[in-house]
Amino acid sequence: MGIPAAFRWLSSRYPKIISPVIEDQPLTMEDGSTIPVDTTRPNPNGEEFDNLYLDMNGIVHPCSHPEDRPAPKDEEEMMMEVFRYTDRVVNMVRPRKILMIAVDGVAPRAKMNQQRSRRFRSAQEAQEKEKDKQELIKLLKQQNGGNLTAESEETVLKKAFDSNSITPGTPFMDILALSLRYWCQYKLNTDPGWAKLKIIISDATVPGEGEHKIMNFVRSQRASPDHDPNTRHVIYGLDADLIMLGLATHEPHFRVLREDVFFQEQKARLCKLCGQKGHDAQNCRGEEKKKDGEHDEKDKGVALKPFIWLHVAVLREYLEVELSVPNLPFRFDVERAVDDWIFMCCFVGNDFLPHLPALEIREHGIDTLTKIWKDNLPVMGGYVTKDGHIDLERAQVILSGLAKQEDGIFKRRKEQEDRREANFKRRKLQNENNGRGGRQGGPAHPKKINGLENPANVLLQPITSFSGPNEQRLTHDMIVNRSSAPDANVANKSAASVLKAQLQSQKSLSTAKPAEADQDSASALGKRKASTLEEGDGSTPDTSNAPTPAAPAEEGPVDDVRLWEDGYADRYYEKKFHKDPQDIEFRHEVARAYVEGLAWVLLYYFQGCPSWSGITRIIMPHSQLTSKTSTR
Questions:
Q1: pLDDT > 60? residue 488
Q2: Rounded to 5 degrees, what are φ and ψ at 19?
Q3: By C-alpha distance, which of 34, 12, 9, 10 is closest to 24?
Q4: Which of 307, 341, 397, 535 is close enough to 21 for a disulfide, judged by CB 3.0 to 4.6 Å?
Q5: Exposed, middle or buried by CB within 10 Å (0-12, 13-18, 19+), for 230?
Q6: Burial letters for 29-64: b for 16+ Cβ neighbours within 10 Å, e otherwise?
Q7: What is the pLDDT of residue 504?
Q8: How far apart are CA 161 and CA 601, in angstroms?
Q9: In angstroms, rounded to a whole number, what is the distance separating the alpha carbons of residues 330 and 336?
């Protein structure tokens, strides 16, 4: 539901809701042939499933930028990755009745604004990277006397897959729909496990988000006279929305299938700088790859990331115990209580509205609301929601209870932030005093780089070629001993930006200290002290041994509201809306607009996309919201 870290919080608080997926793997014979998984056999997880729903955007995005292999070069490779991934998911679940494939169509207008801003930002970043690549080409040509091999230029200008293509209305989405239809027809004709499946494909031409199209289908099946209430559902996706939507269906047998995002096995990682397994870019040391076999023919690749089940039924049992209130003046209904819990989660985060400032899931914001709800449930005389509709008077009670705790929450948060900042500065000062330059506590001045005792005195060499062994050594020299570089964050830069920084640094150093060039040097760019190279400063090797003062921490934007100080509500409206703090009527308008949006979001999750005019009519009589929290 757009709640950051929701899955991590749920799995740590309710550990029994998670279990690993038992997965059969294809058999590889000695001659290299592969025997596929027989999906007609019983499910190895010990339970058979009826319906499988695939939120395809949760498959397309990981396939466009995989963690364990290079990104697909073109759309053909992209489709093959999607087919392989989807086939693996279907083999895990082995549905017996229905397979539904839902691709995101046009989203509700309330979400399109957020999507549009995100995609414009992504396009701007892509344009900036392309500009950096063009500048890098010019620098490389200058270093090589105006000559640059076509292979090197193609490597630099290689374009990554544009994630903005995964948008309704693009040619890519049309190709995806056609490819999925072809692949499903192929599997129906060749795979016995698919023979009796009813397959439903909802592509990007059908409006609505993928997960909500799936939920509309589930609700329509529940309304059918011949619906089996013991139908076992599995939905695949990466969004926390799916957990809340699974609860909102009130189906007794519902599971969410997803990758184990906490799987941190070393061999499953692939470095984006050197292309080797066993470490990430931040910890790369540029070491040459060890071959498995004479020609690396025995390399088995990286381990597949495991999958996990999230049992919605077990989560409902947890919530039944946690939300139970003794001695109620009315009968306790666990399904109504779960609906109220979903409603309270909307205050912590959702895909449409900002969360309340006092509520953070890492600060137990959901627990805070749950306690307020339990304390006030006997007084309210009933539940806050019913079938996706909000009882505003009872919701007012919850918000009033939160308002009483708001000041204390903001002050505690500020105290914790101050303590973290003080601890960070203390540790940084200790590391500097102890001569530790790196985050991992490594030496600030390494004794050797590539076997050289004093790399600071090694002079820079001009580039003679940017291909073959020189290119390999270039990568090695760029990233060697990177863990000893303080505050190095090369992993977050594009390869073009990194290489450009190295070339610019070389050019400035060559001007500062000219020397004779050895054309047979093993390094294409020459060597400097690793920390100086990573930081990209303009110092010369002669001054590298001089102590450097610690760089001051970058200051963030000035916080004019200061939530931890008294009077923050007045400052908020004055700074954010440029309104007079005494204009109470404007605060009521903001509160009313927020509640309108909240009512729309809840109905969207329970009944499908509602009419905005209908929501406005529901909220209109309740414009007199005056609680402390709602006016902020």
A1: no
A2: -145, 150
A3: 34
A4: 307
A5: exposed
A6: eeeeeeeebebeeebebeeebbbbbbbbbbbbebbb
A7: 57
A8: 33
A9: 12
Residue type, 106: V
The pair of structure tokens assigned to 36 is 């596929």
DSSP 18-30: EEEPP---PEEPT
Are 560 and 571 in contact by the 8 Å Cβ rule? The answer is: yes
HSE at residue 555, side-chain half, CA atoms within 13 A, is 3
Q: Counting beta carbons within 10 angstroms of the beta carbon of residue 483, is it exposed (0 to 12), middle (13 to 18) or buried (19 or more)?
A: buried
Q: Which alpha helices (DSSP H) does 144-257 contain, by range?
A: 150-157, 171-190, 210-222, 241-249
Question: Are 232 and 48 a contacting pair, CB within 8 Å?
Answer: yes
Please give the span between the terminal C-alpha atoms of the chain, in angstroms, as a whole number. Answer: 23
pLDDT in tens, 511-540: 444 444 444 433 333 333 333 333 333 333
Weakest-pLDDT range from 66-70, 379-383, 484-488:
484-488
Q: List the one residue out of 305, 217, 229 whose CA is nearest residue 23.
A: 305
What pLDDT, in 10s, does the model give residues 329-347? 999 999 999 999 999 999 9
Q: What does the alpha-carbon distance between residue 528 and residue 54 come to, in Å, rounded to a whole number? A: 51
The C-alpha angle with vertex 279 and arms to 274 and 283, in degrees rounded to 5, equals 80
Under CATH, which architecture does the 50-107+168-261 domain have? Answer: 3-Layer(aba) Sandwich (3.40)
Contacts 24+ apart (CB under 8 A), 30-33: none
Q: Are the CB atoms for 50 and 233 separated by under 8 Å?
A: yes
The 3-state DSSP class for residue 201 equals strand
* Helix H or strand E segment including 199: strand 198-202
Sign of CA pseudo-dihedral 199, 201, 207, 212: positive
Domain chopping of the chain, boundaries? 50-107+168-261, 324-416+565-622, 455-543
Q: Which helix (H) or strand (E) holds 97?
A: strand 95-102
Quote the tokens at residue 78.
């992209």
CA distance 500 to 498: 5
3-state secondary structure 470-523: HHHHHHHHHHCCHHHCCCCCHHHCCHHHHHHHHHHHHHHHHHHCCCCCCCCCCC
Residue 489 has pLDDT above 90, yes or no: no
Rounded to whole angstroms, what are the CA distances from 608 to 184, 194, 207, 215, 235?
Answer: 28, 30, 12, 8, 17
User: Residue 293, CB half-sphere, CA atoms under 13 Å: how many?
Assistant: 6
**DSSP string computed for 567-608:** THHHHHHHHHS---TT-HHHHHHHHHHHHHHHHHHHHHHHHS
Span 388-400, mean pLDDT? 93
Classified as helix, coil or strand, 100 is: strand
- State the pLDDT at residue 487: 41
Phi and psi at residue 99, to the nearest 5°? -125, 115
Strands lying side by side in the sheet with 307-311: 18-20, 307-311, 254-259, 233-236, 49-55, 95-102, 198-202
pLDDT(237) > 80: yes
